[in-house]
């Protein structure tokens, strides 16, 4: 009864800016993420306390048992991954000092911590766990019960859309001597939880009267746990799809049009809310991997059965980032596409191309940006001459360059600012200097592999070249 009254008099809570911390990219290239939130203490009456602290801790645990009865062995190991402590109210080191008194009302303490990008993601498997949590403690005086609040933190790793594995199609192509030619295709080696895995079978029979009895696709999971130099591996089938007699009543083969059979199987991966599958993990205590297995069962002309079996490794992750491409920097050879189309007042305006068959390479300055354009544009002649204003925007017939009352051209040179120029037009303009008001590092969601690119990019007014006037 007394404990219930105390809880009504005070309430402690932890509010996170993001309930789920998403790390972008592989652990070797991720830039990390900021953990930010607020600890709030609501008091209905003044309270004496000794300290207010917050602890963030990440732990990895594995445990399993082997054997039966007297021969049973229990293996267990626990490891701290990360630990950080905040102290909002100083701890009293000496007993004779008075405690701190907090008045009635709401008390808030903000906290933040930059999490490293190589942290393993949260995991709740049968034989192992990776957990992160926050623990806020209000230490009371004397023998009064402390106020404690715990908050779980979910860390998820998200693959970048530009990763090579996401765009790499996997194909198994071979010929079974005197029986068939086959192709098995999957669109990628990486899949997110909740996605479908389409498996395409292309079969061209060589032997006469050959028939496909069944096609089978299986997603299998391998979980390996390690504790004190002992290991255990559990395997299970996550999904199995089997199609009997996939190509019924096939017409006889002819010399002009050989027989070719095609069938697509769909394997659905359980979503994140399900414990029927786990994401791939690779660390010193827990390793989880997945394989796709295929079986083609054939019925030969004499009636006996033959089976073709093969398997490929695949990567199962939490999710694939959809908005990352909008926030990351382009490749070095594509940076010219992001340069603003602005013109220095000292640049000589281009009025028109000299002839209808003049290529873009004859009017571009010799810069890395324009050379990239000229390499592709030089092979395509311009079909018709188009007037170009001093700002580089194409001027429509009948348009004139605007001027100020004093007769001087306006700073935008009369260009239609609502019209976006093409890359070819923008390449003829002087490169604008990059903005000096860059965002803070914690707002950047880029990987360390772009650091070398930042050092190489050095665009200053002294090294810019002015495009030559049209001849």
TrEMBL record:
Q: Which residues form the Arrestin C-terminal-like domain?
A: 176-321
Any one of the GO BP annotations? ubiquitin-dependent endocytosis
Q: Which GO terms describe its cellular component?
A: cytosol; plasma membrane
The record's annotation in Pfam families points to: Arrestin_C, Arrestin_N
SMART domains this protein is in? Arrestin_C
Q: Which GO MF terms are attached to this record?
A: protein-macromolecule adaptor activity; ubiquitin protein ligase binding
Residue runs in coiled coils = none
UniProt-recorded name of the protein = Arrestin/PY protein 1
């Amino acid at each position: 009864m007394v404990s219930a009254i105390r809880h009504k008099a005070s309430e402690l809570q932890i509010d996170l800016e993001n309930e789920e911390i998403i790390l972008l990219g592989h652990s070797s290239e991720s830039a990390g993420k900021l953990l930010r939130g607020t600890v709030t203490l609501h008091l209905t009456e003044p309270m004496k306390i000794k300290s207010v602290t917050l602890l963030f801790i990440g732990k990895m645990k594995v445990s399993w048992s082997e054997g039966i009865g007297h021969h049973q062995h229990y293996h267990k190991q626990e490891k701290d991954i990360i630990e950080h402590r905040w102290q909002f109210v100083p701890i009293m080191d000496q007993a004779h000092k008075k405690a701190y008194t907090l008045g009635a009302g709401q008390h808030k303490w903000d906290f933040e911590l930059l999490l490293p990008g190589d942290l393993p993601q949260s995991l709740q498997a049968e034989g192992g766990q990776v957990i992160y949590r926050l623990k806020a403690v209000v230490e009371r005086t004397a023998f009064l019960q402390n106020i404690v609040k715990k908050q779980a933190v979910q860390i998820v790793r998200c693959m970048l859309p530009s990763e090579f594995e996401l765009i790499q199609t996997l194909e198994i192509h071979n010929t079974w001597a005197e029986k068939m030619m086959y192709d098995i295709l999957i669109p990628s080696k990486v899949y997110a939880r909740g996605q479908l895995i389409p498996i395409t079978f292309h079969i061209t029979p060589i032997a006469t009267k050959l028939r496909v009895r069944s096609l089978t696709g299986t997603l299998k999971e391998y979980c390996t746990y390690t504790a004190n130099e002992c290991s255990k591996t559990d395997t299970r089938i996550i999904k199995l799809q089997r199609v009997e007699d996939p190509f019924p009543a096939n017409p006889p083969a002819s010399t002009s049009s050989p027989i070719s059979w095609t069938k697509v199987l769909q394997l659905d991966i359980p979503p994140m809310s399900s414990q029927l599958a786990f994401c791939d993990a690779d660390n010193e205590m827990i390793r989880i991997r997945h394989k796709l297995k295929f079986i083609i069962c054939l019925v030969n002309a004499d009636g006996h059965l033959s089976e073709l079996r093969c398997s490929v490794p695949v990567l199962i992750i939490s999710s694939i980032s959809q908005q990352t491409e909008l926030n990351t920097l382009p490749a070095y050879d594509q940076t010219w596409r992001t340069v603003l189309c602005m013109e220095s007042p000292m640049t000589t305006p281009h009025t028109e191309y000299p002839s209808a068959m003049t290529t873009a390479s004859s009017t571009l300055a010799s810069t890395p940006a324009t050379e990239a354009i000229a390499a592709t544009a030089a092979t395509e002649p311009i079909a018709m001459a188009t007037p170009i204003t001093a700002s580089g925007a194409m001027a429509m017939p009948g348009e004139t360059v605007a001027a100020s009352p004093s007769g001087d051209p306006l700073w935008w040179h009369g260009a239609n600012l609502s019209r976006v120029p093409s890359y070819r037009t923008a390449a003829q303009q002087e490169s604008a200097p990059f903005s000096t008001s860059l965002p803070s590092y914690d707002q950047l969601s880029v990987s360390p592999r772009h650091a070398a690119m930042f050092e190489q990019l050095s665009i200053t007014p002294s090294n810019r070249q002015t495009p030559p006037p049209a001849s």
